[in-house]
Design a protein that fits this description.
3 domains, Rossmann fold, binds S-adenosylmethionine, alpha/beta, 456 residues, Arc Repressor Mutant, subunit A, seven-stranded mixed beta sheet, 12 strands, 12% strand
């Protein structure tokens, strides 16, 4: 057999990564004792709902990164580039969500004819069939007989009770409107070089309809949108596997946690359930705190009865959080804001911290496509060659989340260095006592950055 040239060696290496990462994923499913999921599954696998999926996520990051890279090398370039843009899965998913196709099919596990399904949701039969077929080729819904469709493990996410489905609905309804004006905002005199929240593509798109409110202003007076948003945040956490923080951070040694910008408790509710010794403060805007209390009453009534949770409205730009607690936890807060606002939030938290308090920033983190100093050490993983060090398309959602932050809030995901710089906010009393990054917990799609008051 002739020797492989350098390009062939790289292709073989990618094939090897695909093989080994898929086997790692299979092993993770088997560890549960429930075997592997099948393409025909009509129920969730127990691992789909688990809070600690780090090992599976690591394997999938390699698998997705390697197969995208392999396919981009082997497919004609025009094929790959058109795959970027010729993709209406978001629109078909949006129809399925809004028409509640998965809810109807849930009543018919054996399948339902497209005629009856379309009648049930009052849509055109042949158009409904086209939507279902476009999604079925991706494994979302399946045609069990000609023109008879049933749910799959993927389409169950589109049921109205599913929080990730709720996130998908919000994203697929609004995201394309904002993305559609991205270039216009980049050449508009007022918007192009602005990093203010009020100059987000979302505001540009909405102002055409006569509405200039930013996201938070819009939700203040719209209870329905606020409800949807906070349910979507629970789904967002599920999608990213953010609850791994429950298992990876040493909560046993902590007594009190302040969830700054808690929403309705994506992490603080399961935290209270897993660690009943913790005293938890929920901080958010007044109207959200009302919703949070209702959510806690439903999901963790025991914590309310025990008096180990409190609900304190704040505006984190103006108010200092409750003082002197062990941990100040911010999940998906700093990424919502441009640097000026993010610094104000951190400065206010810094004022509340005891000398030994800890600040945890839990966000997605961007890594460059070239290897960076320090990455690959300190527990931060770097992809094996010939993959891009940041896992390439295996990190797709981190980079898409960065785009979402830009589109909706004119904000961004940050690199570790950018976060370190943000942490150095001077306190009001000492120019040297900023916050130093002391540890990073790599949760694959998100990271938890631990900051402590810097020793001057
Ligand atoms: C992206 S959500 C994250 C919620 C929650 N931490 C999570 O991860 O699900 C951002 C949160 O910041 C809150 N927020 C926005 N502006 C705020 C302000 N000025 N003061 C306090 N909270 C605010 C929002 O109400 C929302 O709950």
């Amino acid at each position: 057999m002739s020797e492989l040239n350098e390009s062939e060696v790289k292709l073989e290496a990618l094939l090897g990564i695909i093989n080994s990462s898929a086997r790692q994923a299979i092993a993770e499913y088997k560890k549960t004792g429930y075997g592997v999921p099948s393409a025909d599954a009509t129920t969730f696998h127990p691992l789909d709902m688990a809070t600690d999926t780090l090992a599976l996520k690591r394997a999938i990051r390699l698998l997705e990164g390697a197969y995208h890279q392999l396919s981009a090398i082997l497919a004609p370039p025009q094929h790959t580039v058109m795959n970027f843009v010729c993709n209406y899965n978001w629109a078909c998913t949006n129809v399925a969500l809004r028409a509640r196709l998965a809810d109807v099919l849930d009543q018919h596990p054996e399948g339902l004819s497209v005629d009856r399904l379309a009648d049930a949701v009052d849509l055109d039969k042949s158009k409904t069939a086209r939507i279902l077929r476009a999604l079925s080729i991706m494994g979302c819904f399946k045609e069990v007989e000609r023109d008879v469709f049933a749910n799959t493990r993927l389409s169950l996410i589109l049921k109205s009770a599913n929080n990730t489905g709720c996130f998908a609905q919000l994203h697929s309804t609004d995201g394309p409107k904002f993305a559609g004006v991205l270039y216009e905002t980049m050449i508009d005199q007022e918007f192009s070089r602005s990093h203010e929240v009020d100059k987000a593509p979302r505001v540009f798109a909405s102002s055409k309809e006569g509405n200039k409110d930013n996201l938070w202003e819009m939700m203040e007076n719209n209870e329905e949108q606020r409800d949807l948003f906070h349910r979507a945040m629970l789904g967002h956490s599920d999608m990213l596997g953010a609850s791994a923080v429950l298992h990876q951070y040493p909560w046993d040694g902590i007594s009190s946690v302040v969830d700054v910008g808690s929403g309705i408790g994506a992490i603080s509710v399961p935290l209270a359930k897993m660690f009943p010794h913790l005293r938890i403060t929920n901080h958010d805007l007044p109207e959200v705190i009302v919703q949070a209390r209702i959510a806690w009453q439903k999901d963790a009534p025991e914590a309310l009865l025990d008096g180990r949770v409190e609900f304190v409205p704040i505006n984190f730009f103006e108010d200092v959080p409750v003082v002197g607690k062990d941990v100040y936890y911010l999940k998906h807060i700093i990424h919502n804001w441009p640097d000026v606002e993010a610094t104000t939030i951190l400065r206010n938290i810094r004022k509340a911290m005891r000398p030994d308090s800890v600040l945890l920033i839990h966000d997605c983190v961007l890594f460059h496509t070239l290897q960076e100093p320090g990455v690959g050490t300190n527990g931060l993983t770097i992809a094996p060659e010939p993959m891009l060090p940041n896992f390439g398309a295996g990190s797709h959602r981190t980079y898409q989340t960065d785009m979402t932050m830009w589109l909706v809030l004119n904000s961004k995901e940050r690199t570790l260095d950018e976060l370190k710089i943000l942490g150095q906010v001077p306190s009001s009393t000492s120019a040297n006592a900023g916050l130093a990054l002391t540890q990073v917990y790599d949760l694959v799609e998100t990271m938890v950055m631990e900051f402590r008051i810097a020793q001057s």
